UniProtKB/TrEMBL annotation:
UniProt organism field: Zea mays
Domain of life: Eukaryota
Compartment(s): Membrane
Entry similarity comment: Belongs to the TrkH potassium transport family. HKT (TC 2.A.38.3) subfamily.
Annotated GO MF terms: monoatomic cation transmembrane transporter activity
Renumbered residue ranges of the record's region Disordered: 85-116
Gene Ontology terms: biological process: inorganic cation transmembrane transport; metal ion transport
Keyword Kinase attached: no
Principal localisation: membrane
The protein's name: Cation transporter HKT7
Keyword annotations of the record: Ion transport, Membrane, Transmembrane, Transmembrane helix, Transport
InterPro entries: Cat_transpt, TrkH_K-transport
Ranges of biased composition (kind: Acidic residues): 97-107
Gene Ontology CC annotation, any one: plasma membrane
Amino acid sequence: MSCAGWGLLVALKVRAPNRRPRGIDMFFTAVSASTVSSMSTVEMEVFSSGQLLVLTALMFGGGEVFVSLVGLASKWSKMRKQIKNRSRRVESHDGDIELETTGDDADADSRSITSTVTEENDDIPLDAKILRRNAVRSLFFIVLAILVVVHTVGTVAVAAYVYAAPGARQTLRRKALNVWIFSVFTTVSTFSSCGFMPTNENMMVFSRDVPLQLLLVPQALVGNTLFPPVLSACVWAAAAATRREEVVEIARKGREAMGYYHLFPARRCWMLAGTVVCFLAVQVALVCAMEWGGALRGLSAGEKVSNALFLAVNSRHTGESTLDLSTLAAAILVLFVLMMYLPPYTTWFPFEEDSKREHSTEDQLRSTILSQLSYLAIFVIAICITERRKLKEDPLNFNVLSIVVEVVSAYGNVGFSMGYSCSRQINPDGLCADRWTGFAGRWSDSGKLILIVVMFFGRLKKFSLKGGKAWKLN
């Protein structure tokens, strides 16, 4: 896909011939689109409409939902061939038996031997295989319906908003972008969790377009973190509406019978949805608390909340942004890094997958403890908040890497430190004097108290090494 996309991008004309990207940059863009990474080395407005459509096709083909749909189609085709071959074999055996009309015990023995061979070759009854094939086919059409409906409704909704909003329409006119190409490109990019936008500034030019942001948020969630709950809801709705045996089989057995990675049990779906909501709430709260008068300055209250929500949703692998990330506080960036690190279906699930196994209350409470990495991320975020003023005023000494080294060193009871140098101050302080102390010696009292907790936690970490079992990362 990447090589084919690269060939098409090179073959098609760019918008401005004198700004044509180099071959390596074209290939980089094609790989970024097909892997839905949205990493960029060229300005997006360089590409012509034809090249934008090529990138759209690459993003669509590399999207997780489409790839899983191809997998279902392959499984369906394979099962059809298996059932057809088995049916021919059974008919052949029946024909051989009918030809033998001796009428003695040898006929019964022949039937017995034929039946035994057939059972040994195919342990699963033919009716069960047909039912499973029909279930895979039904699941294929349900996923296909979600894919078609989301892209169709999303494209029409985005185009309708652009036509209805003079500001958005003027932005596209100024950038010489076709409304429908923009709508299709944006919808495909958002649902596939790629994050490319046909504008150089990504979504920053639409930071005041709250309705557009709220149209893209559900698309990003359905195509990424909330796809299993949406799929399960559609399966249960189809089972209730049609009452077809194969659809009821999907709803009853789920992933166990279908082997489809994105099909979760009902309890797991509810816990996944709850986990996603909690993650979003924490991120929105932190962005609003720390950037209300900073990066969000100049926006209305509703626009600030909408931008915070849009950033929180896109931090989970989509990557579209309405704000300049370099202007955000370090604590927010650390939280975003953690969110990007976690797989899409990360779930707080303090239950055993095997419901038959009995567990004590103590075991269940122990399973709810967070993992060591989670605690370290929380400590780093907390210290970035307490030292936020120095992170802005003295960035060469106070940076996230120095804080991470100090926290991990305290957690491991090591003692390494990046130290502090007065010569690295951007605005030299005449009263500053170099001292042979660790970096934490320049922190505020609040930061030092947090590091004290980290040292205790690290010394006693053997009591929490089994934490994090309640978090399902697959």
